[in-house]
Amino acid sequence: MSTIIRMSWSDVSAEVERLAARNRGKAFTEVYGIPSGGVPVATLVAPMLGLPLAETPTPGRTLIVDDLVDSGTTLRRYQRLGHHTDALWRKSASPGDLAPAATVADGWLTFPWEKDDGEPTDAVLRILQHIGEDPTRDGLLDTPRRVIKALKELTAGYAMNPATILATTFDVTHDEMIVVRDVAFSSLCEHHMLPFHGVATVGYIPAPGGRIVGLSKIPRLIECFARRLQVQERMTDQIADALVQNLDTLGVGVVLRASHSCMSMRGIGKHGEMVTSRLTGELRNDPAARAEFMGLGL
Ligand code: ZN
Description:
It is built from 11 helices and 13 strands. With 298 residues, it is of the alpha/beta class. The chain has 3 domains: 4-115, 3-Layer(aba) Sandwich (Rossmann fold), CATH 3.40.50.2020; 119-154, no CATH class; 164-297, GTP cyclohydrolase I, C-terminal domain/NADPH-dependent 7-cyano-7-deazaguanine reductase, N-terminal domain (GTP Cyclohydrolase I, domain 2, 2-Layer Sandwich), CATH 3.30.1130.10. The longest helix is centred in the N-terminal third of the chain and has 15 residues, at 9-23. The chain is elongated and about 95 Å long. It binds zinc ion. The site of zinc ion has 6 residues, from loops.
């Protein structure tokens, strides 16, 4: 497992002095920094050696510098072209001939010019380290970025507005219950940020002269509340409230049935379905309507 080592500017200056000292008086006429970490190094080293920065490196004349030799692939390419290479630090596992005098530092090195404090990907990286993983291994290198991207997608509901979703209505005379059954949804429980998956059944009775919404709007409304950090009970209420507030109805009903990973994968480790419901108006008070709706939802 590797630890994050944050190199400060004073760490950098000390290493820059060493690098300058060991390359002073040699036959170089210019300094070139490998983008992007080598650029600040070259910028600091060049004036100390009294040399200009190279626009384009010339073999034999240019000192090529980098901040860190890791796998050494880039520096090796320059070395093969006949360049002399050096770096401030190298890993103990790095090829020793690319910057033999560089200070050995193992771990996850970060430099002042790549400060990413407060970056969400940095937080994921820390979590990976916390569980004992090595964020520098191949399969995990791009994981922090992917995790943040997935989280944004899974919480896209915060940017969706239920009023907008339900704004388009049709003027159709219909006074019977309208039900959309078993709409699959996935959400994240707000206690563990683990997924819960289930189906939603949503119904309403239009008020006399009331308007109805297109069928596709109900799944979108469910999505709007599912793609947030949730508890199933609140999600049920939010769907019902949005219908009450945005449609003219005699009653609405919402039933959610879901399995929670935080219950099946951890804790008591048992599978089971949780059922939540919310009924208003006639769907709550008229026993026949209530029984009909619950029959469809369960
Ligand atoms: Zn949970």
